[in-house]
Write a structure and sequence with these properties.
alpha/beta, TIM Barrel
Length: about 220
Amino acid sequence: MEIKANLETVKKTFKNSACLLVAVSKTKPLEDLKEAYEAGIRDFGENKVQELQDKQPQMPEDVRWHMIGHLQRNKVKYIASYVHLIHGVDSFKLLKEIDKQGAKVNRQIPVLLQIHIAEEESKFGFDRSELEEMLSNPEFQAMKNVEVRGLMGMATFTENQDQVRKEFRGLKSQFEELKSQSLPDFMKMEELSMGMSGDYLIAQEEGSTMVRIGSAIFGARNYQ
């Protein structure tokens, strides 16, 4: 029952008990997910559509599946009917495809807009001008089958905690700024997803409502 013990250890360190813990189960075998489920986890994060498709029918129906990886537009249709939240919407083109697939399955698909906050080029996401351009686009404002729940961002992978804190603080500031604006009805702006196994405590101190934790629960990643 190592996973249960790990979960309890992680939860004891939380700075904000109301912050949602998404267990990052990518690359992990089904028995690990079931063990986490038995320990009370209902929110699981996967970063590959194929893996999500394989696991979803084999887990209980009350599991909430989070798509946390970079999502390709041609894969949206495979998860549109059941995905609980798509974390990494990093382009207007992707959002338009999600809206289109949401219409086909007659649901509003919940998403987070990914903002580029890291100094690394490898991270995806909108910069400020791209986001503003999309928000003012009539095509965006007319969307019917997406629900923007908030923002997501990934900090630079660094030992420099001051830099990580600065990046999270900047995202929180942008989140509050957006909340104060007049937004379309489908923008709820309730969630701020930031923080992973290495930086979730800083993220919680800076206002995160949702953290994605994998290795601290399941152990080291299985590289495939």
